[in-house]
Amino acid sequence: MITATDLEVRAGVRTLLTSPGSALRVQPGDRIGLVGRNGAGKTTTLRILAGEGEPYAGTIIRSGEVGYLPQDPREGDLNVLASDRVLSARGLDTLLRELEKQQTLMAELVDPRERDKAIAKYGRLEERFSALGGYVAESDAARICHSLGLPDRVLAQQLRTLSGGQRRRVELARILFAASDGSGGPSQTTLLLDEPTNHLDADSITWLRGFLQGHDGGLVVISHDVELLADVVNRVWFLDAVRGEADVYNMTWKRYLDARATDEQRRRRERANAEKKAGALKAQAAKLGAKATKATAAQNMVRRAERLLSEVDDVRVADRVAHIRFPAPAPCGKTPLMASNLTKVYGSLEIFTGVDLAIDRGSRVVVLGLNGAGKTTLLRLLAGVEKPDAGALEPGHGLRVGYFAQEHDTLDNNASVWENIRHAAPDAGEQDLRGLLGAFMFSGPQLEQPAGTLSGGEKTRLALAGLVSSAANVLLLDEPTNNLDPISREQVLDALRSYTGAVVLVTHDPGAAEALDPERVILLPDGTEDHWSQDYLELIQLA
Ligand SMILES: Nc1ncnc2c1ncn2[C@@H]1O[C@H](COP(=O)(O)OP(=O)(O)OP(=O)(O)O)[C@@H](O)[C@H]1O
Ligand SMILES: [Mg+2]
Question: 227, 379, 441, 510 — which has fewest CB within 10 A?
């Protein structure tokens, strides 16, 4: 259980949230959706609830276990095996290692006395492992990992060799494994999950939904996946970026949406009423004010009118929305980018071999494949940030690549917003760049903010602004709609629709593929090409 009392959350000088009293409480059975626009403060608030950040004011009391999945993958010891990372949640990884050590000793030792000692030690360790539910736990962990799209071969790899998305799935598996204690009894763990579906395929999302629906401990989930919210959530915390307050709704997602709509209407009606009355009072006051003897009465009327107006909430300041346009691509030859025989191997693991492709000017291609089929790797090769093990890129005449990386690793986290965009477009004029950043809703003090402290959605916006500034003629987009709130997502998709350069898109978001209106699809790991058809859209929904 987690209770926040008189919580106040700030970022820099901005107040993100004030919540007097202890309305922000997570109890067993609560499945809370924490929602709000990009940059509203969801991640910051969740981090504080998890105990990984300090609030500006207020106290947080936690009891029981807490499983926290941050929005950005954590840097830890990257040399551990993925399976050990998951098992470590219940301290089983070290026991397993010890068991293996004694097993080797037993086989190698020739001195009978020493061998007996090893056998006895093995016995004791095995008993402990078994008493801790080790065998059941091991299969539990495997089941959770498989459900999240982590096959055995990935689990046997070191974390450093995994993609950002895979690492995040390992973290999620670890947290869910810790929360399901194997006995099948109710879990007391409070789960705090920040965008858990970002790197999951459709099957995994369906599984996760089921898992969360059945979770007995408390849950706070941040997600732009409205279907997940609709299926899982029984309470909603809405962070209002305009008022810096949290509204608590004790209802399901569907009810909440209705309530919000009604609320908006009521507010608008009250405001209109108050304005009408105030208008009448002021008109009256103006007439009276002409006569010196009635001046006081007139003043009182004006004061009353003002009070009327101040008593109703402002109609929500229309949420600001970026109007994004990808610029005209720089001129280029007929086929700006070709690649032949691309092959990528990690150790003994073959991602794909012998992939040929040709990206024509203005063509639109979607790359499809299951989790781990190498979609991100292919884009990294095409972008030139990673070298193939065999095969080569053949840049065509005038090629300019714009690469949007899933993990935002095209951004320099230590540099400011301004420095990042300056770097992306060194030749552009200062005024143009300011205008561009403004169009992506960055202005004022936020230009000086280090990119590393931006929210997930803000990072996506900045990375897209960088793309826009470069007049690229081949855009390589890896999950460009992850982290975006619904309104910002629409803006990006609109920009994609009207862009005239070539696009190679990797996405789990069927809406994004539809907006691209692609001609072709490349299927990984084989690299076969096909004409785009409605069937493939369904495949994205399923894959
Ligand atoms: N050190 C800092 N200085 C100034 N502003 C900051 C700092 N750290 C964070 N912020 C700002 O605080 C705001 C809240 O960030 P947070 O990551 O909590 O948002 P969020 O609601 O999770 O957004 P998203 O949906 O994009 O993930 C953002 O506008 C962010 O830029
Ligand atoms: Mg966030």
Answer: 227
Ligand 2 mean position to 250 CA, how many Å?
Answer: 22
pLDDT tens figures, 67-117? 999 988 777 788 999 999 998 888 788 888 888 888 888 888 888 898 888
* Nearest ligand by distance to the CA of 40: 1
The torsion defined by the Cα of 63, 69, 71 and 77, in degrees rounded to 10, comes to: 120
Distance CA 331, CA 328 (A): 9
Q: What's the number of domains the chain is made of? A: 3
CB 202 within 8 Å of CB 508: yes
> How far does residue 54's CA lie from ligand 1's centre (Å)?
15
**Domain that residue 33 falls in:** 1-91+132-242
195 ligand 1 Cβ < 6 A: no
Same domain, 408 and 487: yes
* Any ligand 1 atom below 6 A from CB of 482: no
The answer to whether position 432 is within a domain reads yes
pTM of the model as a whole: 0.81
Helix axes 112-131 and 134-147, enclosed angle (nearest 10): 60
Tell whether 112 is covered by a domain.
no
Q: Give the residue, by CA position, lying nearest to ligand 1 atom 27.
A: 456
The ligand minimizing its distance to the Cα of 45 is 1
Domain match, 80 and 220 both: yes
**How far is the centre of ligand 2, averaged over its atoms, from the C-alpha of 113 (Å)?**
59
